[in-house]
Known about the structure:
The structure holds 2 protein chains of 2 kinds.
Chain A lengths: L3 E4 L2 E4 L5 E7 L5 E7 L5 E8 L2 E5 L6 E7 L2 E6 L8 E8 L7 E2 L3 E5 L1
Parallel strand pairs in A: 2-11
Antiparallel strand pairs in A: 1-3, 3-8, 4-5, 4-9, 5-6, 7-8, 9-10, 9-11
Chain B lengths: L8 E5 L4 E6 L7 E8 L6 E6 L4 E2 L4 E4 L5 E6 L8 E9 L16 E6 L1
Parallel strand pairs in B: 1-9
Antiparallel strand pairs in B: 2-7, 3-4, 3-8, 5-6, 6-7, 8-9
Amino acid sequence: DTAVSQTPKYLVTQMGNDKSIKCEQNLGHDTMYWYKQDSKKFLKIMFSYNNKELIINETVPNRFSPKSPDKAHLNLHINSLELGDSAVYFCASSQDEADTQYFGPGTRLTVL
Amino acid sequence: DAKTTQPNSMESNEEEPVHLPCNHSTISGTDYIHWYRQLPSQGPEYVIHGLTSNVNNRMASLAIAEDRKSSTLILHRATLRDAAVYYCILRENPYNAGNNRKLIWGLGTSLAVNP
């Protein structure tokens, strides 16, 4: 029933580890996004994929690598986690780049 | 980077109307005005959007100034569930925008609703 889902909801890990966050949408949308929301509540786009192709890649460290195995999934892999990576990460999707974005519930990542 | 200006916080009483202002003096002719809101511990959700004319939907109304340099989101009867951060965002028409297809989010207005 859930439109955009993310797993896990919470992720606590040590500095230097590698972790992944998964995102799935069942809306049949063509475009998916990853956003990062920091402690000041700024929501900043990281990546956007349209039909499995990368169309937006903001200035994000290359420790972050998105992977889109199909149109319904956009996973985020993070290598060598740092303290500053602690944030809430939101996945979103839209029918195309012009349309309303639907957000997932977020993944709260805490790096110790 | 945010192209919009909103008050940091506002307060309302339950069942009263709420007018949330947004200034966007640098808006261009093809920019759409979008509003999203983020309830506590949830992802943002779409509220409404418009280009020039006022818009109504089941959640809210959007009043756009004639010069388009400002807009107001109107919640007709606030409920406790409307307590959230409300974001006003300009979005270039992606079909004209080339590679600039992103929403640029500001800090929004934190709305408190008193019972």
